[in-house]
Amino acid sequence: VRRKAISPGAGEHPLQYNYTFWYFRRTPSRPANTQSYEQNIRQIGTVASVEQFWKLYSHLVRPGDLIGHSDFHIFKEGIKPMWEDEANKNGGKWIIRLRKGLASRFWENIILAMLGEQFMVGEEICGVVVSIRFQEDILSIWNKTANDQVTTSRIRDTLRRVLNLPPNTIMEYKTHNDSLKDNSSF
Amino acid sequence: GTRIIYDRKFLLECRSSPLAR
């Protein structure tokens, strides 16, 4: 299927990149293998401007109001939110565990930082994910090159600033290669 | 090239634009 190219409308503020929204919900009956992941992940839409972002975002359920095992992903257009994607295969992510009740606010702030190009790491950012789980929620930001320490440190420091994280917040970095090996995201 | 950078405050202001509805 050939999709229509998304571009900013008249009078809108263009984004540095187009971004695609994805939604994933685990169906309990299926095993958590790659195939069922690809089958269960759904594209919601793509935005090219600040105004298009708000239009789409405002229609979505806030992550803190979701129930069950589900994820929202916002990735640069053309990058699938999968470890195996060309842009992700040498990459990794910062993981921030959040106690229940914080996901919606932190999710919005991490999105605004990404869309506004606050990370200053060139082309390195791939996307952001909020994962709703039973006891806690998890925010992650994916970048292209896991072994580029200058980049990963800068992302960590920017996250601390833009999210205004409590000082005791634990941040972990995990390479997608390790996620593939232990078949686990976190 | 030039990067299109927006701060949080500006992005939040755009939310109330008629174009964002």
Short précis:
By secondary structure, chain A is α+β, with helices and mostly antiparallel strands.
Q: Please tell me what the overall shape of chain A is.
A: globular
Question: Could you report the average pLDDT of chain B, rounded to the nearest whole number?
Answer: 95
Chain-averaged pLDDT of chain A: 93
Largest sheet of chain B: none
- Estimated share of beta-strand residues of chain A: 25-35%
Count of individual helical segments of chain A: 5
What share of residues are in beta strands of chain B? under 5%
Count of helix runs of chain B: 1
Largest interface, counted with CB-CB under 8 A?
A-B, 20 and 15 residues
Percent helix among the residues of chain B? Answer: 25-40%
Q: How many DSSP-defined strands of chain A?
A: 7
Rounded to an integer, what's the Rg of chain B over CA atoms? 10 Å
Number of strands of chain B: 0
Strand order in space, largest sheet of chain A: 2-1-3-5-6-4-7
Low-confidence stretches of chain A: none
Low-confidence stretches of chain B: none
Category by helix and strand content of chain A: alpha+beta
Return Rg of chain A in Å. Answer: 16 Å
* Straight-line N-to-C gap of chain A: 33 Å
Multimer state: heterodimer
